[in-house]
Design goal:
The longest helix is centred in the first third of the chain and has 19 residues, at 2-20. Strand 5 and strand 6 (97-100) form a beta hairpin. The protein contains 2 helices and 11 strands. It has a 7-stranded antiparallel sheet with strand order 1-2-11-3-4-9-10. It has a 4-stranded antiparallel sheet with strand order 7-6-5-8, with no helix packed on it. The protein has a single domain, classed as Ribbon (Umud Fragment, subunit A), CATH 2.10.109. It is of the alpha+beta class. The protein has helices spanning 2-20, 148-151; strands at residues 21-25, 40-45, 67-71, 78-85, 90-94, 97-100, 103-104, 127-129, 134-138, 154-155, 159-167. Helices cover 14% and strands 32% of the residues.
Length: 169
């Protein structure tokens, strides 16, 4: 009888957890040395609640520094990047320094392969003013990352989830 009660109480929690979290595999090097090709991520799913008034409870309000998964606007593939700026921020990238609202960002996780960063084609260094519900995202491996320097800010509706854990391969 106790087992039945335990399953009755735990069962809904397991169902909710399976709806809310996704397990995804990293298949790129743009987030090295934080996430490596082949690592597994536990992602807090943005779309686990219906789009109603309850959507205010959605976990998808990423903060600066969090790693997010989103759908590319080009080919709808999944991409993984770090949030650098959120709605209302002004982001500027110059050489190897990122400024948010005029303040240089301390980024111990960033990996540079060369001294002449940014070298990527289209890697702009101008200032971007982020609209509400938009995010400026960059890969930690800046020299190889295709990110907001190339494709611009991402919109909130492109978000798939926030990375909550990493399981090394």
């Amino acid at each position: 009888m106790r087992l039945c009660k335990a399953l009755f109480l735990i069962g809904p929690a397991i169902i909710i957890a399976s709806l809310r979290y996704s397990v995804l595999k990293v298949s790129a090097s743009s987030m090295e040395n934080t996430l490596f090709d082949g690592d597994v991520m536990i992602v807090d799913d943005c779309n686990w609640l219906p789009h109603t008034k309850q959507a205010a409870m959605s976990p998808c309000r990423p903060r600066r520094g969090q790693i997010v998964v989103f759908r590319s606007s080009f080919d709808h593939s999944l991409m993984v990047k770090r949030v650098i700026g959120v709605g209302g921020d002004h982001v500027r990238v110059t050489h190897a320094t990122v400024f948010v609202n005029g303040i240089p960002v301390f980024e111990p996780y960033v990996h540079h392969q060369s001294e002449s960063w940014p070298r990527r084609e289209g890697s702009g260094t101008g200032e971007v003013a982020l609209e509400e519900q938009s995010y400026f995202v960059l890969g930690d491996n800046r020299d190889v990352s295709t990110d907001s320097r190339v494709f611009g800010p991402i919109r909130a509706e492109m978000l798939v989830g926030i990375v909550r854990a990493r399981l090394p391969k």
